[in-house]
Amino acid sequence: MTSSTQQAALDQEHEHDHHGPATGIKRWLFTTNHKDIGSLYLLFSLLMFLIGGGMAMVIRAELFQPGLQLVDPHFFNQMTTVHGLIMVFGAVMPAFTGLANWMVPMMIGAPDMALPRMNNWSFWILPFAFLILLASLFMEGGGPAFGWTFYAPLSTTYSNDNTALFVFAVHIMGVSSIMGAINVIVTIVNMRAPGMTWMKLPLFVWTWLITAFLLIAVMPVLAGAVTMVLTDKYFGTSFFDAAGGGDPVMFQHIFWFFGHPEVYIMILPAFGVISTIVPTFSRKKLFGYASMVYATSSIALLSFIVWAHHMFTTGMPLAGELFFMYATMLISVPTGVKVFNWVATMWRGSISFEVPMLFAIAFIVLFTLGGFSGLMLAITPADFQYHDTYFVVAHFHYVLVTGAVFSIMAAAYYWLPKWTGYMYSETLAKWHFWLSLISVNILFFPMHFVGLAGMPRRIPDYALQFADFNALISIGGFAFGLSQLLFVAVVFKCIAGGQRAPAKVWDGAEGLEWEVASPAPYHTFSTPPEVK
Amino acid sequence: MASGYEKYYVPEQSPWPIVGAIALFGVAVGGGLTVMESPSGQFILYAGIGLLLFMLAGWFRHVIHESQEGLYSAQMDRSFRQGMAWFIFSEVMFFAAFFGALFYARMFAVPWLGGASNNAMTHEILWPSFEAVWPLLSTPGGDTTQAMGWQGLPLINTIILLISSVTLHFAHSAMEQDQRNKVKVFLGLTILLGFAFLVLQVEEYIHAYQDLGLTLDAGIYGNTFFMLTGFHGMHVTLGAIILAVVWLRVMKGHFSAHNHFAFQAGAWYWHFVDVVWLCLFVFVYVL
Questions:
Q1: Which of A13, A223, A232, A242 sits at 20 to 30 Å (Cα–Cα) from B87?
Q2: Record's Gene Ontology CC terms (chain B) (predicted)?
Q3: Which CATH superfamily is domain A31-514 in?
Q4: Given a cut of 90, is residue B118 above it in pLDDT?
C-alpha cells in the first residue's frame, strides 16, 4: 500500500469509530466516553469535597470554644450528618470511581468501559442525589440530623419530616454505586487485552475489582436499611421498634453489615493507588505482588464478619463480643502484609520525592497510625471506654483523610499530566503537601487525647478541660481546609496549561497508560495492545 | 483470550442516560414529597415515573435496534450477560437484608423481649405479660393479628411459580433448537402463570387485610410478611413485563438459536424470582 492509500484507509477507519468529543454541554451530558465520565466524577468529587469541607469548618468553628456560640445544636447535628454523608458518598467514593473510569480501561488495554451508556447514567444520577440531600437542608425542619449512620430511633421516631428525601437520595446514590461497580467488574473480567492475565493486572485494577464486588454485595443492604427506616417512619412498620416486636439494635446490625465493607470500599482502591506509586518512585518492582492480591481478597472477605465491632456497647451476648473482637484483629494481618510490602518496595530503592510519592509515604505512615488506633478500638473492653468519643473520630479520620483522601491526592498528582497533557506546578504542589501534612496532624492528632479523656463526639459543646486542645484542633482544621484551596489552584492551573508532559511522565513508571500520549487520546486501544 | 479480541462497539453519545437521571430525580423527589404528604408530591412522582418509562422504552428500543443491526459482538454479549448476572446478585443482597431482618427478629429480638438469654429484667420491666412466640400474633405494644397459613393460596402460588419455571425452561430449550412456535406457546404460558400468581397474591392480601387483620403495620410479623412478599411481587411484575417484551420480540422474529441475550436475561431473572419465592414460602409461610 502506498502511503496515501494507507492514509485514506486510516481516515475511513477514523470516520467509522473515532467519533471525537462533541462540543459544548452536550459532550458532558450525553457522553459515553470513559475519560469524560472519569473527569466528571473527579470534578464532582472535588466540588463535594469542598462543600463537605465547608461543613467541617462550621463544626470546627462552633467547637473552637466551649459553649454554644455560632450555630444552634440542631443545625450542628445537620452539619455533622451531612458532612459525613457527603464525604463518604459524594467525595471519596466518586473520586475512586472517577479514577477507575479513567485508568482501568487504559491499564488493561480496553477501548472503553464495558457498558458505556450505563456508565453515563451512573454518573449523572449522582449530582441529583446530592441536590436532593443539600436542598433538604434549606427546607422547613432542616436536613437529616441523626448522624451519617442514621441510627433508629433517631432517624425514625425522632427525625424531622424531611427524612423521606434523605432516604430517596441514599437510594439514588446506591443505584449509582451498584451500576458503576457492575461496569468495573465486567470491564475487568471481559475486556482485558490479549496477554493481560490475572496475575499481570496492575494492583489498582485488582483492588478495584474486589472493591466493586464489595459494592455490589453491600449497597443493596444499605438500600434495605433505608427502606426499613422509611416504612418505620411513614408506614407504621416496627422493624426498629420494640413495641412491635422489632429492635433498634437490629438497625445497627443491618447498617453495619453494609457499613463495615463500606470502609474497605473506601480504602482498597487507595491500597491500589499506593501500590502503583511506591514502585514508580522507588524504581523497583512492587515487593510481593501475589501477596498483595491475596491480602486484598482476605481483607474483603473478613470485612463481612466484623461488622458488630461498631456495636460492642449495645449489650450483645458475650460470645458475639469475643467473636467480633478476634475477627477484627485478624484483619490487621493482611493489612500488615501490605504495609510491610510497601516498605520493602522502598527498601534499597532509588527513591525520589515528587509530590505523588510524598503523599504516598505520608499515607503509609499515617494510615498505619489510623490502623493502630483501630486495633485499640477492636479490643472490646477498651472500646467500652473509647466508644462514641473523639478517639473514634481521630481513628476514622486518620484512615479516611490521611488514608483515602491522601491516596486520592497522590493519584491526582500522579496522573494529572496524563489527563491534561501538562505538568502540574511541583512548587505549589509541594506547598500543598507540606501544609496539608502539618495541618492535618494538628487537626486530628489531639483528638486522640481529648477522646481518651472522655470528650463525646457529635456534641456542639464540651467541658472546659477540653478547651485548649479544641482550639488547637480548630486551628489545624482551618489550616487544612485552606490548604485544599491550593490543591484546587494546582489542578485548574494544570488543566489550563504549563510545561508539556511526555507520554511516560515518570521514568520509573510501568503500565499501559504510559504507552499512550499525554494527554491520553480521546479513544485509546481500539485495537488492543499486546501484553507480554 | 484465545478467541482473540474483537472489535468492541463503543456507542456514540446518547441522550437516554441524562433523561433517565432526570426521571429518577423526579421519582425520588416526588416519592419523598408524597410520603411527606406534600400536595405537589404525587404530580412530580407520576411525571418522574412517566419519564422513566419513556426513557426505558427509548433506550431499549435503541439497543434492540443496534442488536438487530448486528453491531454487537460475542464479547459484548458476554458483557451483557455478566452485567445481568451481577445485577441479579445485587438483588439477592437486597432481599438478604429483609430476610436478615426476619431471622434477627425471630431468633433474637422477639425471644429477648420475652426474657430469653440475659433479658429477664427487660421482660419484667417493659412488658411482663408479653409472650415470645412466632408468628408474633400479639405485639408487646398490644396489636393483635392472625397468622397466614401456608395451605391454600400460598401453596397454589408456589405450585404456579414452580410450573412457570419449568415452562420457561421448555421455552428456552425450544429457542436453542429454533422451534419458534414452541417458544411462543411456552413463553406465553409462563407469562400467563406469572399473571395468575399476581392475581392470587392480590387475593391473598385482601384476605389478610379483611379477614385476618394481618396488615403492614401489625408488628414485626406483618412487617416482614408484607415487605418480603411485596418486594417479591414487584419483582414478579417486573419479570413478567420483561418476559412480555421478549415474547413480543419473538413474535416479531427477533433472536436466533445462538443469539438471544434478552431472552436469557429475562429467564435468569424469572428463575431468580422463583428461588426467592421458595425461600419466602419456607421461611415466611411454613416455618
A1: A232
A2: plasma membrane
A3: Cytochrome c oxidase-like, subunit I domain (1.20.210.10)
A4: no
